[in-house]
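This follows on from our talk about sequence and fold. Please put the record directly below this note.
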Amino acid sequence: MIHAQQIKNIIKNSTLFGWLYYWVGVTIVKFLQLFIKPNEKQILFISYSGRQFSDTPKEAFNLIREDPAYADYKLVWAFNRPSDFKQAEITNKISSNSPLFFYHLLRSKYWVANSSIDRLIPFKHDNNVYIQFWHGVPMKALGHTEIGLAPLVQHWYDKVAFDYMFTYSHYDLDKFKEVFPRTKRFVNTGQLRKKIVERYEGKTNVEHIKKELGIKSDKKVLLYVPTFRGYDAKEQTTLTDATLERLAKEYVVIYRGHYFSRATQSGSIITADKFSLYKLFMVSDLLITDFSSVFFDFAPYHKPVYLFQPDLEEYQVKRGLYFTAETLGLPVSYSEAELIDCLNKVEYDYDALDALNSRFNPHGGDEAAFAFKSILEHT
């Protein structure tokens, strides 16, 4: 049986099916636009193209949901599998895989996303306000600089016209101007996701989160977050189960994989793929990742970050990078033995984290929250 994700991959990676999908979609949207007018007080949210109830769209949702000034707004969530999300606060949810999704898209004046909300059909939306909170600082190449990008996805990067795109700093502002050339306005105030840990700290504590995860040990907590490669790798890409087990003797090891990745099968490791990443930030004492932008969001909490990149050369050839880890001053290892040596060093260079935050993530979450509400008030 072919699943929805397999169908999406076929459409994205086939020129024929990709353009067929695009023109059929555009035709449907243009027809619906003749009859559907947006509700001035309706907002549609989507996170990671419908896979999650998380990240900045969730924080934006909570900001509006808890503000009495927006009590009469209709807040709608789009999910690939709506039945998987039973949170009480989600009172309106729709399927993002249904053709009727485009009806709801046009019916909502405001669109809030951290990736594509328009299902790779970048149509003209004069009556709607498209607010984009991208899901990370771009270290990996995007758009025209991304190697082997599917034609339909490349077309989306070139043609999508966000009304507002939030950025972390001047670094990603400059990058996104190139990646999304039709964006109407950039909002360089940082990202709302910076307020997520603040929200969790206000209603829960570290010990409660550890209990949720089943952590009973007093050992330091190591968070391991590898990213998805998107190609058949010839080199080693992730830590082996044997190394994870070795680390588990000294640390409580939490594995948080990319939503496309295979979960680890190591028995001593806590697999937390569906657990809030920002709750994991709260309980973790250090982070190991590779090319994932997660370390930009972890660094402000002033906890050690280690990069494990055994396949650097292959990744540069097959995926592309804007810069290498050496330029960041963070400890980077190219083998498991090197990584163990790095972890065993007594001193950690916290000045490198300060420099990273100053360059890539200098704003507080309140700035983005104010800017987001200002958009709703003035459009």
